[in-house]
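Internal tracking record. Fields below are filled automatically when a chain is submitted to the structure queue. Please do not edit lines marked as system-generated. If the sequence contains nonstandard residues, flag them in the REMARKS field before resubmitting.
Queue: standard
Priority: normal
Entity type: single polypeptide chain
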Amino acid sequence: MKISLSARQVGAIGVARVTGALLRCGYNVLTPYEDFAGYDVVAEKDNKFFRIQVKTSQAMERNRDRFRFNTASGSEIKRLIVGVDYVACWAMSDDLFWLIPIAKCKTITTKFCPSTGQSWRIFQNL
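SYSTEM-GENERATED OUTPUT FOLLOWS
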């Protein structure tokens, strides 16, 4: 039986998974009180802070061997993510991660092949 998840549920699961990976790598993880901060979590280690926006994809694009992540925000007018240091992309079905410094995140959508994904250890050295 397949469970249907809302976009908010998928997002919450992604944030929880990235939070767990960060904790496993020795970071303290802070979350904003409101959901309009622009970032989902702040990772802190050795007195260095990193604001991270989490993007989650449930499965590969239909008939394609890649995952697609929306690396923009807004409903009618798409704009690039601002106010963060990294975008963490997580492929739910394959448990793969990609970590993009915000300076390299310049498109509305970002697509990755599974062969380029990494384990939770990608967060060890932000």
